[in-house]
Design goal:
CATH class of one domain: Alpha Beta
CATH superfamily of one domain: Periplasmic binding protein-like II
GO molecular function: DNA binding; DNA-binding transcription factor activity
CATH architecture of one domain: 3-Layer(aba) Sandwich
Family: Belongs to the LysR transcriptional regulatory family.
Pfam family, one: LysR_substrate
Helix content: 40-55%
Strand content: 15-25%
Protein name: LysR family transcriptional regulator
Keywords: DNA-binding, Transcription, Transcription regulation
Shape: globular
Length: 314
């Protein structure tokens, strides 16, 4: 029984996308070609790998077994490619990172950009997911490195601290809430908010805590990033909840107020997680070492609520 690496990669991409169309796009194949490859693999094996339904496809039990083996095989290929790349110029390495919203928006861009500038033969596939989904992706081999909040269960993974992240409420200039030293989420659930898209990891995180506190957050508008959110808040539209680093960046030009959330979950340590560091491709290990390096002063989020006054300055 012989397997083609392109077919294995295609099966993984189809499973991640939830459809053959989405998998074909990610694999840069036509739909007809992708469908023919999957049918051919199923015919060769004599089993169905995916269950077709109106919304897309789901892997069968046999498909899940194939996917588990495919991830291991492709990870070993990637490790070999990276190690040989140390000796043979031109070989490409690929590192897959799954990250929560805050790390992806606030901490990773500068670090990843600098790493890529130093490693021209490396590509990085960065995907935003909730912390539980990130952990699952790393455990299953769908991601090489994960960045998550430390409140999540991390059994079975190797972890190291990455950055600290404090969530704060941002308010329009002069808002009455800025007189408070801090505030609990439950005390502002009657207010209206500007938020991130529903599918963002941070939005799901906040919505979950709001519902556990008694009722959902009420959104007047959802915007795609922290800077846009803060601009809408500064115009007087509503409140927002963002990382302290993003709030300070916007406060310098927009004059928004910053009020720390007092809930314990609002102060989080972000951690890097991998399944097994020594089994990572060489480029992934190099990137992990870079991410473990010390933070620059601009990216350190203070844990002292008294350091942030009603004008958002320190």
């Amino acid at each position: 029984m012989r397997f083609d690496l392109t077919d294995l990669r295609l099966c993984l991409l189809v499973a991640e996308a939830g459809s053959i169309t989405g998998g074909a796009e990610r694999a840069h194949l036509t739909l007809a070609s992708a469908s023919a490859r999957i049918r051919g693999l199923e015919d060769t094996l004599g089993i169905a790998l995916f269950m077709r339904h109106r919304q897309g496809v789901l892997p069968t039990p046999a498909g899940r077994a194939l996917l588990a083996h495919a991830r291991r095989v492709l990870a070993q290929i990637e490790q070999m490619r990276g190690e040989l790349g140390e000796y043979a110029a031109g070989l490409k390495g690929n590192v897959r990172i799954a990250s929560n919203t805050v790390a992806m928006s606030e901490f990773l861009p500068d670090l990843l950009g600098a790493f890529l500038a130093e490693h021209p033969n490396v590509e990085i596939a960065l995907r935003e997911q909730t912390s539980p989904a990130v952990v699952q992706a790393v455990l299953e081999g769908a991601a090489d490195i994960g960045v998550v909040s430390d409140w999540i269960e991390l059994t079975g993974l190797e972890t190291v601290p990455f950055r600290q992240d404090r969530l704060v409420i941002v308010t329009p200039p002069g808002h009455a809430l800025t007189k408070r030293e801090s505030v609990a989420l439950v005390d502002v659930l009657d207010a209206e908010f500007i938020g991130l898209p529903e599918q963002s990891a941070l939005a799901e995180h906040l919505d979950g805590h709001a519902k556990r506190a008694g009722r959902p957050l009420r959104y007047r508008l959802r915007l795609r990033d922290f800077d846009s959110l803060c601009r809408a808040v500064a115009a007087g539209a509503a409140l927002g909840i963002v990382p302290l680093s993003a709030a300070r960046r916007s406060a310098a030009t927009l004059g928004i107020g910053i009020v720390p959330l007092s809930d314990p979950w609002a102060l989080r340590t972000l951690v890097l997680c991998v399944r097994e560091r020594d089994a990572l491709p060489v480029y992934a290990r190099q990137l992990l070492d870079r991410l473990q390096g010390p933070a620059s002063p601009a990216t350190v989020a203070t844990t002292n609520t008294a350091d942030t006054n009603k004008n958002g300055t320190t």
